[in-house]
C-alpha cells in the first residue's frame, strides 16, 4: 500500500524528520505493509506557525495533491497523509482527491478522545499562536474547551526539531501541567514527531500520544477501508494563475474530465 506523506511546511528537513520517525513507527504500530512517499509543499512558510502561513499552506497542499494524485501521474496512491499539525487545506483536499486524505490534528484528536473516555483531551504543541488556531479547529468539529484543551510551549516546532534535547525537560513539564484532569495528552506538531516516546515515562498515569503515530494509524486504516461510492466532485470553474495541475483539478468536474476554460476570475 503506497501512501503520500505530504508536509505542508516547506522545510525539507521536517519532511526528512517525519520520514525517519515514520520508518521506526510503522513496524512498532503493526503497519509494516505501508510504503510512504514523501512530498514537501513547494511554496509557503518554512514552518507553519500563524493563520496567514496556514492559509498559504492550504494552497500549497492542494497543488501538491493535484500534481501527485492527478490522472497524469502514474503513481497509484491509496491515501494521503497530511503531516502538518492544524491540517491546512484538509477539507478542500478531500473535495478534490479521489483517495482518503487524513490530517495529523484530526487523527490525533480522534485517537485521544477514544483513549480519554469521558475526560477531556489536552493538546500540547509549539508556538503560542497555535493555541487559538487549534481551539478553533476543535470547535469546528463540535469539541469545546470541556473536551479539548490546548496548551503550548514558547518555541515553535521547527526550533524544537533543530534542538530536541534542549526541549525535552520543558515539554515534559508542560505535559505534566496539561495532563491535570485530562484523560490523554497529544504531543502535536510535525517538528515534535517522535518525542512523545521519550517524554511518556515522565508522565505516569496519563497516555501521551504522538501526532505522527496517530496520523499513520488512521491513514492506513482509512486507506484499507472499502470505498463508499464515488465522492462528489465540485463544479468545474475557470481559474487564473494556478499551477497547471491545480487548474486541471478545479476544471475537471465536467463529464469526461474536460478541463474548464482558463479565464478571468469572477469578481
Question: Overview of this structure, please?
Answer:
This is Aspartate/glutamate racemase family protein. InterPro entries: Asp/Glu/hydantoin_racemase, Hydantoin_racemase-like, Iso_Racemase_Enz_sf. Belongs to the HyuE racemase family. This protein has 2 domains: 140 residues, Rossmann fold (3-Layer(aba) Sandwich), CATH 3.40.50.12500; 106 residues, Rossmann fold. Helices cover 42% and strands 14% of the residues. The strands form 2 sheets. The chain has a 4-stranded parallel β-sheet with strand order 2-1-3-4, with helices on both faces. Strands 6-5-7-8 form a 4-stranded parallel β-sheet, sandwiched between helices. Helix 1 links the parallel strand 1 and strand 2. Helix 2 packs parallel to helix 3 and helix 4 packs across helix 9.
Give a short overview.
The strands form two sheets. The chain has a four-stranded parallel sheet with strand order 2-1-3-4, sandwiched between helices. A four-stranded parallel sheet has the order 6-5-7-8, sandwiched between helices. The chain is 42% helix and 14% strand. The chain is an alpha/beta fold and 267 residues long.
Amino acid at each position: 500500500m503506497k501512501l503520500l506523506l505530504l508536509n505542508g511546511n516547506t522545510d525539507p528537513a521536517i519532511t526528512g524528520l517525519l520520514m525517519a520517525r515514520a520508518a521506526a513507527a510503522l513496524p512498532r504500530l503493526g503497519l509494516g505493509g505501508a510504503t510512504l512517499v514523501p512530498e514537501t509543499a513547494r511554496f509557503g512558510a518554512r514552518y507553519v506557525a500563524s493563520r496567514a502561513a496556514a492559509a498559504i499552506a492550504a494552497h500549497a497542499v492542494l497543488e501538491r495533491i493535484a500534481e501527485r494524485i492527478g490522472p497524469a501521474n502514474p503513481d497509484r496512491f491509496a491515501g494521503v497523509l497530511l503531516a502538518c499539525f492544524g491540517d491546512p487545506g484538509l477539507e478542500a483536499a478531500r473535495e478534490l482527491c479521489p483517495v482518503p486524505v487524513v490530517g495529523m490534528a484530526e487523527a490525533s484528536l480522534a485517537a485521544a478522545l477514544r483513549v480519554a473516555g469521558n475526560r477531556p483531551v489536552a493538546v500540547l504543541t509549539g508556538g503560542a499562536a497555535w493555541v487559538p488556531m487549534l481551539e478553533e479547529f476543535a470547535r469546528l468539529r463540535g469539541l469545546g474547551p470541556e473536551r479539548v484543551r490546548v496548551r503550548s510551549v514558547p518555541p515553535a516546532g521547527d526550533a524544537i526539531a533543530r534542538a530536541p534535547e534542549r526541549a525535552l525537560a520543558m515539554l515534559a513539564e508542560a505535559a505534566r501541567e496539561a495532563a491535570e484532569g485530562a484523560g490523554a495528552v497529544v504531543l502535536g506538531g510535525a517538528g515534535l514527531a517522535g518525542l512523545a516516546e521519550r517524554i511518556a515515562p515522565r508522565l505516569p498515569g496519563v497516555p501521551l500520544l504522538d501526532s505522527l503515530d496517530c496520523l499513520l494509524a488512521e491513514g492506513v486504516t482509512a486507506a484499507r477501508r472499502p470505498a463508499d461510492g464515488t465522492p462528489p466532485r465540485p463544479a468545474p470553474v475557470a481559474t487564473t494563475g494556478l499551477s497547471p495541475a491545480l487548474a486541471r483539478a478545479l476544471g475537471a468536474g465536467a463529464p469526461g474530465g474536460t478541463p474548464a476554460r482558463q479565464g478571468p476570475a469572477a469578481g
